[in-house]
């Protein structure tokens, strides 16, 4: 069970959270302008990186807010935690 | 290939087994191959075997970054069944079940395919509706699956607790009698031995680090931890790490990789005669030939490549097992481990050509890849050899996610009301 | 017999009676079952897995592979596969040996041992393939019957288990010299310390350290003092009988505390307690395990580990034999020999090393010894040793082995730390950390007492400091020992003069893996240690390779011509020792397995004799049978009552979300397919919510209470999903919107009053709201009071009748229900359940999300295209509807089905085919008998179904099909006239 640093509440156990997948995939402002390839990629294609992964979490059973983590998917080590709307902190390259 | 049989075992036994030779060669990479399979699990080794046997493509190498069968092939709970809902899925999986039946003889390697039956428990009215829909759909397609009342389920699997006095009583069950289990390691070894005998090079400790392409974009070879290898075709069958490998060719797939845990109990005398699954309370159990209860859990909630997950996942699984089988509470967990499953948005696999010429992929099996091993391997070989899918895997493209032709087995079991 | 007076930690004045395989024996308080058996001269305790060879006790604790027993306490309390070495003795303990038929002494399956040459590693992969059908029918059942160890209990386990969570700055695993000194040092800083040890008494090796002193105290005395000090500190949690079994990410460790099994009778409290401990720092002082030696016939009863024999002497006052031969490759064998000799046991020591250490010993030492074999069937009787060019047979009643020590790196490895090969200890030791942890003492390969104590002090101080606590300076305890552990050790198979392919030199005792099995595996090309493990099953027994791993590694290395460190090692997986399912599952059983959600009207329904169904976590009343009614009779009556007079339905489980804020309408516009801007205050609309991929996620009626306030309902099962979806879009896509979302599912009880008399029934109760037909038309929402409670009234209908949904605060739900019931009953009102609700809505062609839809159904498929706001450029899921598959002409569409025989009821889930058969065109989603229509009805999803209206199709069933006509899904009151009563 991961220990997850919620930027609003501090460290909390994983069971208080829900996972929201890869972060920074913004919904296109005018979806009808996208062709099927681009829309399909928005819906489904994911980086699924082995390494530092920017991802969305929600402190469901706490403050209920979404936020972002950078977590190394090779080790599950959490590198950074930041609020929605703030830029991702610089992460050292692999 | 040395033939395996009771007679050869006796003959070698009299010579203290000194005469056995390696089941497959520890091959070193050649400069080039006609085709290279990335990933030495059951799917990859099987694909190489069928390429060599059925499609005459013998200048083939299987590249495995660790030891063959060390990924999900050797980590799964070995459940085999084909009672899927949609026609496309059930025909795909049933193709595999048909191949399972006879695989030991085909490979001359006992993979211990055990037709013990797979019993899927229904705990509420919605489950009953969903499973009956499965039963009807399967029967129409000639795939065996039958509905049992709770009492019939108990007769088939005596340790079941069908008392109404539990949190989720058992209202009935769907039974696929041809379903069962097999010995996972033997599948990898059996395919390796048979492929090797046909000339396939099985190269372990050889991690692919790059995919080479010519100016037209067509693949020309792979970079590996053991040097470059030229090839005209690359089949990627690297469950868990599919995204990582495909990314080397600039492709981004509709995949996410999650930890999936499993565990076994200490061995006990035969007590669970079949595979028992409960989707509603998230548990499945069977008993290995050795006597261990083999128990599968759900995935952890986050993507990870660590091949491990949280204790709470295993706990929740055992809560569910002990709810169905309260007599097992005093048994003990002997071993708990994790694998990495790559999951597609519709929980159905991809066996297909890719936008990169010469590059083929077999991925996205989620938690259910083992059962499909022989079928998927054969269809993948077909796709690689002919540069076109077989009718059975034609729907399982990457493009279905663009066009919306999803084969959504997960959604089809959606919770109701 | 073999008990030595006045020795050990056992209470010589407290005899305990117990039985083993039906034989009454006596032990002492403080014994384990193993020590008590040994005190009675019993070594033979088990049979091996494959060859069914007679086996004795090998170790003294968790490493035991042979002596597995079933302990039976009665009342379903039967526990198989317990190592006798870990079973604490209590009065009247009943234990049985396992995996033998009919008895340990005469086991008919020992035939396997004689056939052993034909049953090498992996033999089953090579045979049992002919004839094909025999595998499932003949071979496999027989193999299974012989395999397995103990028998699983048949009755439900009556014992309780509990879970505890703990946080601390420092968790110390192991309370031996290293662990105790680490815990003491860390604790003195004031930080929170948890220290656990898997044995009954803390102290580890100190308890059996007969000749050691620390700071002038005897080792045991020092340990007692340390434990007393720790026990007195409020910042310390000391957990004996507690195994740290798993190391999980972010320094979470799983601990299992055994509370009941060492006591006689039924446990007063929980049997076991599972701890999840989150520690800032973890100190692993897990010690080391003695390694056995691999020589021919090394598995006879009476052959055991030398240090285990020493522990039985020092802890339990038991002599494992009277004439023992100690075979050693490590100096520690001399310590065991000295202590056994001092206790009056006749000792011969055979040192496998070329030049045995020259020192004067009071017992005979054979240097450069080679073990050629042993004798004895049910107990070892002699050992054959060759040395200085000759072979000597020595009669004995026990053979003790010492191959050196293997640090217990299980938890360090589980934490994903790196390991390095230590040539001196001939084992892997921790080298780098992935978590905030360190290994100390013997677990780090530092076997001497003084090193362990020094490691502990340093690690305790460092850990406290890292957690922000200043350690008080404590001097490192000074240790002195008569016999140091010393050096040496060997791994792999010992050399001997026999044909290695013919002898059985065991590597893994329980799974019967011999050196020649590993040789065979490497001969067959299994070079990876993981392959060797899986092919031979070495290390896969219940001891998980604690004794076998390094020996199999060394044999593999030797066979494949590689140094040991080039072969690597197999992954360590949790748990360290097996953990009871019950402990992991904890209190979660029955109603604690999953919480049960009940509405405020639940008790009323129970009192009325309702039959319930599970919907998600909710219990919903399915029907209310009267007298001898079956479900169909009750449902018929309920359905007729609703359309004939009125029905009362508990809809409290519906999800309810309040959507508030200046941008609430904009938010709904973006989310739902419908247009919301022009929904007037006081009006409701049926909303459809799609997933971004275009398929139906949920539906429900949404009412506008104010310009900036909406009351949205969802399906019962979809409530959490819908709120999560809303929050996701609101927080991450449109954070600029001024909208607040609140789940009010539990706030409001919902009482549906449906039927022609609905208004008549409610009018006398409702205050502050005009509910007349004109003032409150269909799809109205308004606020008032009812029975003194706040009321949110919606005029909506899921039955097609004049209908209201009365929302009242949950605390008033029951009272308001009763009030309505009192007024309605004289008018013929009936309470109806979910089953009648399903029938009534199906008569009207209303869908249920999850029944008519399955995640592959679009709004248009379900006949809901009318709900889509035609002028909207975007809403969640809209773009996906333009994809090719969504526009395909052969999509499955919702239709009604009419059986030709009105009495024939279709089966839900049945497949629909063309009039002449062929592939599936769709399936029956809902099927009921409709009392109001006097016939069966059904809804279905059918490929291109709307165009097939009026056509005849077949429903495929076993033994032929059922002919049906495709109809419009609305089967009752198609014009909707009844909505207005």
Automatic annotation (TrEMBL), chain A:
It comes from Sphingomonas colocasiae. It holds the Pfam family SoxD. This is Sarcosine oxidase subunit delta. NCBIfam families: soxD. It comes from the Bacteria.
Automatic annotation (TrEMBL), chain B:
Keywords: Cytoplasm, FAD, Flavoprotein, FMN, Nucleotide-binding, Oxidoreductase. Pfam families: DAO. Residues 36-79 form the Rhodanese domain. Its EC number is 1.5.3.24. It catalyses: sarcosine + (6S)-5,6,7,8-tetrahydrofolate + O2 = (6R)-5,10-methylene-5,6,7,8-tetrahydrofolate + glycine + H2O2; sarcosine + O2 + H2O = formaldehyde + glycine + H2O2. It is an enzyme of class 1 (oxidoreductase). The keyword Manganese does not apply. InterPro entries: FAD-dep_OxRdtase, FAD/NAD-bd_sf, Rhodanese-like_dom, SoxB. Its cofactor is FAD; FMN. It is found in: Cytoplasm. Its main location: cytoplasm. Belongs to the SoxB family. This is Sarcosine oxidase subunit beta.
UniProtKB/TrEMBL annotation, chain C:
The keyword Isomerase does not apply. It comes from the Bacteria. Coiled coil: none annotated. Residues 169-417 form the FAD/NAD(P)-binding domain. SUPFAM superfamilies: Aminomethyltransferase beta-barrel domain, FAD/NAD(P)-binding domain, Folate-binding domain. InterPro entries: 2Fe-2S-bd_N, BFD-like_2Fe2S-bd_dom_sf, FAD/NAD-bd_sf, FAD/NAD-binding_dom, GcvT/YgfZ/DmdA, GcvT/YgfZ_C, GcvT_C, GCVT_N. Residues 601-872 form the GCVT N-terminal domain. Belongs to the GcvT family. This is Sarcosine oxidase subunit alpha family protein.
């Amino acid at each position: 069970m991961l220990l997850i640093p919620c930027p609003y509440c501090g460290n909390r156990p994983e069971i208080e959270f829900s996972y929201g997948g890869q972060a920074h995939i913004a919904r296109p402002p005018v979806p009808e302008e996208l062709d099927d390839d681009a829309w399909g990629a928005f819906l489904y294609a994911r980086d699924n990186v082995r390494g530092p992964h920017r991802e969305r979490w929600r402190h469901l059973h706490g403050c209920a807010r979404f936020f972002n983590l950078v977590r190394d998917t090779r080790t599950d080590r959490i590198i950074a935690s930041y609020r929605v709307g703030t830029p991702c902190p610089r992460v050292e390259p692999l | 290939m040395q033939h395996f049989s009771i007679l050869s075992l006796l003959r070698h036994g009299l010579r203290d087994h000194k005469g056995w030779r390696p089941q497959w060669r520890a091959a070193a990479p050649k400069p080039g191959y006609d085709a290279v399979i990335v990933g030495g699990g059951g799917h990859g080794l099987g694909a190489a075997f069928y390429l060599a046997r059925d499609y005459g493509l013998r200048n083939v190498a299987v590249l495995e970054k660790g030891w063959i069968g060390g990924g999900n092939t050797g980590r799964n709970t070995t459940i085999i069944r084909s009672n899927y809902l949609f026609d496309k899925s059930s025909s795909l999986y049933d193709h595999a079940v048909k191949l399972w039946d006879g695989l030991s003889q085909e490979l001359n390697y006992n993979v211990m395919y055990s037709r013990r039956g797979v019993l899927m428990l229904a705990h509420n009215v919605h489950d009953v509706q969903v499973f009956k829909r499965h039963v009807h759909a399967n029967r129409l397609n000639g795939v065996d699956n039958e509905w049992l009342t709770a009492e019939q389920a108990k007769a088939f699997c005596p340790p079941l607790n069908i008392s109404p006095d539990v949190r989720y009583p058992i209202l009935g069950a769907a039974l696929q009698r041809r379903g069962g289990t097999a010995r996972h390691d033997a599948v990898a070894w059996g395919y390796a031995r048979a492929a090797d005998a046909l000339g396939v090079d099985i190269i372990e400790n050889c991690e692919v680090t790059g995919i080479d392409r010519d100016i037209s974009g067509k693949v020309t070879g792979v970079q590996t931890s053991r040097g470059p290898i030229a090839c005209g075709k690359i089949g990627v069958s690297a469950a868990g790490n599919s995204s990582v490998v495909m990314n080397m060719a600039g492709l981004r797939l509709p995949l996410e990789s999650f930890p999936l845990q499993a565990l076994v109990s200490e061995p006990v005398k035969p007590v669970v005669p079949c595979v028992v699954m409960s989707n509603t309370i998230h548990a499945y159990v069977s008993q290995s030939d050795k006597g261990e209860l083999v128990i599968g859990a759900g995935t952890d909630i986050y993507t990870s490549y660590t091949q491990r997950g949280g204790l709470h996942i295993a706990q929740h699984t055992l809560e569910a097992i002990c709810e169905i089988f309260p007599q097992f509470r005093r048994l003990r967990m002997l071993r708990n481990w994790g694998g990495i499953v790559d999951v597609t948005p519709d929980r159905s696999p991809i066996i297909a050509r890719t936008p990169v010429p010469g590059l083929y992929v077999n991925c996205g099996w989620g938690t259910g890849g083992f059962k499909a091993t022989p079928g998927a391997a054969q269809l993948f070989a077909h796709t690689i050899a002919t540069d076109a899918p077989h009718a059975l895997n034609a729907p399982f493209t990457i493009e279905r996610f663009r066009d919306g032709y999803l084969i959504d087995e997960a959604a089809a079991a959606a919770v109701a009301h | 017999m073999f008990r030595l007076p006045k020795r050990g930690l056992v209470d010589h004045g407290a005899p305990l009676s117990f039985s083993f395989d039906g034989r009454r024996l006596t032990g002492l308080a403080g014994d384990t079952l193993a020590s008590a058996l040994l005190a009675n001269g019993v070594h033979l305790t088990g049979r091996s897995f494959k060859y069914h060879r007679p086996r004795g006790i090998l170790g003294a604790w968790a490493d035991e592979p042979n002596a597995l027993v079933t302990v039976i306490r009665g009342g379903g309390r039967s526990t198989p596969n317990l190592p006798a070495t870990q079973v604490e003795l209590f009065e009247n303990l009943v234990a049985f040996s396992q995996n033998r038929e009919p008895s340990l002494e005469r086991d008919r399956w020992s035939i396997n041992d004689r056939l052993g040459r034909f049953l090498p590693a992996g033999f089953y992969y090579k045979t049992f393939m002919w004839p094909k059908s025999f595998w499932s029918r003949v071979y496999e059942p027989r193999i299974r019957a012989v395999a397995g160890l103990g028998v699983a209990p048949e009755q439900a386990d009556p014992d309780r288990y509990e879970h505890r969570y703990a946080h601390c700055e420092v968790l110390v695993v192991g309370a031996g010299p290293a662990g105790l000194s680490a815990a003491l040092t860390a604790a003195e800083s004031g930080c929170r310390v948890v220290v656990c040890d898997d044995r009954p008494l803390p102290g580890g090796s100190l308890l059996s350290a007969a000749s050691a002193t620390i700071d002038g105290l005897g080792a045991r005395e020092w340990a007692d003092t340390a434990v007393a000090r720790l026990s007195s500190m409020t910042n310390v949690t000391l957990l004996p009988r507690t195994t740290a079994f798993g190391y999980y990410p972010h320094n979470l460790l799983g601990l299992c505390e055994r509370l009941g099994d060492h006591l006689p009778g039924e446990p007063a409290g929980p049997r076991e307690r599972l701890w999840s401990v989150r520690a800032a720092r973890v100190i692993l002082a897990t010690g080391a395990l003695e390694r056995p030696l691999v020589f021919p016939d090394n598995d006879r009863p009476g052959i055991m580990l030398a240090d285990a024999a020493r522990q039985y002497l020092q802890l339990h006052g038991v002599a494992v034999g009277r004439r023992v031969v100690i075979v050693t490759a490590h100096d520690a064998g001399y310590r065991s020999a000295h202590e056994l000799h001092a206790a009056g046991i006749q000792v011969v020591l055979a040192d496998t090393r070329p030049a045995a250490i020259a020192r004067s010993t009071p017992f005979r030492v054979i240097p450069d010894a080679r073990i050629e074999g042993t004798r004895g069937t049910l107990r070892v009787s002699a050992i054959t040793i060759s040395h200085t060019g000759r072979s000597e047979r020595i009669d004995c009643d026990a053979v003790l082995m010492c191959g050196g020590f293997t640090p217990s790196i299980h938890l360090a490895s589980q934490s994903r730390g790196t390991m390095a090969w230590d040539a001196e200890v001939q084992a892997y030791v921790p080298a780098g950390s992935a978590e905030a942890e360190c290994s100390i003492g013997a677990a780090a390969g530092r076997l001497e007492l003084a090193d362990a104590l020094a490691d502990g002090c340093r690690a305790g101080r460092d850990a406290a400091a890292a957690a922000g606590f200043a350690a008080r300076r404590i001097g490192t305890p000074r240790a002195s020992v008569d016999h140091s552990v010393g050096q040496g050790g060997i791994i792999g198979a010992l050399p001997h003069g026999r044909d290695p392919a013919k002898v059985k030199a065991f590597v893994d005792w329980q799974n019967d893996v011999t050196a020649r099995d590993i040789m065979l595996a490497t001969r067959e090309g299994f070079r990876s240690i993981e392959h060797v493990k899986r092919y031979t099953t070495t290390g896969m027994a219940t001891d998980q390779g604690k004794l076998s791993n390094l020996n199999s590694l060394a044999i593999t290395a030797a066979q494949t011509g590689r140094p040991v460190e080039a072969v690597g090692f197999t992954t360590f997986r949790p748990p360290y020792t097996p953990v009871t399912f019950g402990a992991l599952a904890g209190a979660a059983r029955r109603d604690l397995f999953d919480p049960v959600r009940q509405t405020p009207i639940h008790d009323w329904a129970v009192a009325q004799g309702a039959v319930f169904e599970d919907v998600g976590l909710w219990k919903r009343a399915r029907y209310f049978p009267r007298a001898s009614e079956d479900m169909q009779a009750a449902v018929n009556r309920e359905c007729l009552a609703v359309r004939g007079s009125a029905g009362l339905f508990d809809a409290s489980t519906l999800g309810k979300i309040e959507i508030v804020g200046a941008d609430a309408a904009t938010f709904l516009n973006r989310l739902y397919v419908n247009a919301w801007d022009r929904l007037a205050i006081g009006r409701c609309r049926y909303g459809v919510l799609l997933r971004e991929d275009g398929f139906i996620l949920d539906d429900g009626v949404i009412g506008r209470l104010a310009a900036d306030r909406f009351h949205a309902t969802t399906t019962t099962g979809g409530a959490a999903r819908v709120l999560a979806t809303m929050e996701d879009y609101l927080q991450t896509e449109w954070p600029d919107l001024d909208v607040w979302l609140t789940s009010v599912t539990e706030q409001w009880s919902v009482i549906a009053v449906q039927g022609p008399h609905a208004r008549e029934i409610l009018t006398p109760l409702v205050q502050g709201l005009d509910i007349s037909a004109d003032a409150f038309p269909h799809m109205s929402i308004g606020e008032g009071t009812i029975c003194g409670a706040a009321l949110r009234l919606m005029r909506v209908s899921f039955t097609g009748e004049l209908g209201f949904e009365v929302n009242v605060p949950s605390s008033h739900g029951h009272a308001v229900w009763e009030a309505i019931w009192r007024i309605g009953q004289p008018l013929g009102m009936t309470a109806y359940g979910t089953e009648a609700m399903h029938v009534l809505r199906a008569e009207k062609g209303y869908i249920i999300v999850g029944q008519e839809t399955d995640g592959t159904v679009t709004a248009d498929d379900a006949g809901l295209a009318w709900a889509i706001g035609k002028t909207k450029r975007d809403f969640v899921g809209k773009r996906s509807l333009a994809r090719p598959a969504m526009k395909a002409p052969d999509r499955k569409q919702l239709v009604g089905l009419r059986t030709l025989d009105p009495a024939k009821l279709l089966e839900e889930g049945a497949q629909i085919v063309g009039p002449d058969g062929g592939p599936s065109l769709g399936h029956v989603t809902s099927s009921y008998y409709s009392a109001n229509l006097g016939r069966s009805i059904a809804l279905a999803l059918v490929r291109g179904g709307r165009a097939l209206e009026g056509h005849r199709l077949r429903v495929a069933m076993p033994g032929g099909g059922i002919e049906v006509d495709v109809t419009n899904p609305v089967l009752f009151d198609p014009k909707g006239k009844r909505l207005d009563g």
